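Backbone shape codes:
***
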Amino acid sequence: MTDKPREPRRRVRRALIASTAGCAVLGGVLVLLPWEEGAPPAPTPAGRALAAVSNGVPAALPDLTALTKERERHLKRHPQDAQAWAVLGAARVEQGLRLADPAYWSRAEKALRTSLTVQPRGNAPAMRGLAALANARRDFAEAREWAEAARKLEPGRWTTYPLLIEAAVGLGEDEVAGKLLEKLKELRSGPAVMARAAAVYRDKGWREDAAAKLADAVSAAGEPAERAAYLERAGQLAWERGDREDALRHFQEAVRIDPDQRAAQAGQGRALASLGRTTEALSAYRAALARHPRPEYVLELGELYESLGLKEAARVQYGVLQERVRAAAAHGADEEVVLGRYEADHGDAKAAVRRLREEWMRQPSTEVADALGWALHRAGNDEEALPYAVRATEGTQGGGVRSALYAFHRGMIERSLNQYGPARRHLKEALQINPWFSPLHVPQAKAALTHLPEPSAQAGPESH
């Protein structure tokens, strides 16, 4: 897959940015009007979703449905309401994320570009919506352009900064992300900012700080869907540090609060499999994929089946993964990393190298560095693979996140290069970070350690 099909959209986007970025602000901040008398009534589902979308926090799926239907009815009567088009587009972006359905993103783009057509000057809400859409599609360069245009119009609007941070991380600009976070914290406090800070801290390897921030975000969250989203992130952080019981508790609580929290259901599958509760794990994955078929979860389930010796069931899931990636590409989304990971381990490693090289040229993040390094190793190019693995795992080079998978990849590459001391160190590190990080790779790591030559008593420190 290449970027060529998206080039016309990018040219249109640049023209729109050029025509709007320097204009005066005309308003565009989304607010709910207070009632004049008496106690305010309980917010409607559409009202709850509007408040969430306006403030960049997760919304419940039924509330998002109510909001989109309400906006559609309104726009039939008032098709020149640019703000309503922007709200509709932003809500559809969130729906696409919650449902893992990229078809919503094409509809979101249509609504957001209609908003800009109706109000081409000073339309920061539509720009933020297009930035969120580009982040969802993993087009981080485009996301940054739209978010920067919105920031130029409304430099004090805090909701622009999470979009810029996400784009910076996707482009491998971790120092920029840290500076943007400091600016965000100057403008705003609250659970959404805490959760964003936790993500940045996690990428720096500050796991205790990240966990503390997420705990604070969970406690301060307002609506159940928001709290469930932060619980899911806390569960993922616990899983990454190898605390499978704590991870499972977080995932289960997230699903209890918000049954549509499919990411947490996939997390339950991950944790249950590591605990040997295989039947429950498979049920959790199937529930997650029934309405949230994200390609990475499909890959996880396929690898779990493969680890159980159920090769035909695994092949079915790998086929589903490829279908989901094609569907995402048809709606402008970039799933090259997960497809590259699949190809490297289960398909054509050379094809994985080709697609991941292109991805690295577009957005050289830590995640892409790890995936490309592993694909090069699987294709037999270990000398070239090692610098990418180092980039993914060395904090001085941007790879601050403590990932068992990344450490495993580096250790296996070093083993192939006969760098036995570093290989032993990184394979042990992978198993120390999370002894259950992969049903396929954990046995490989243990076997590799068993068969590594013993360090020589005369060897230098690098060999140990």
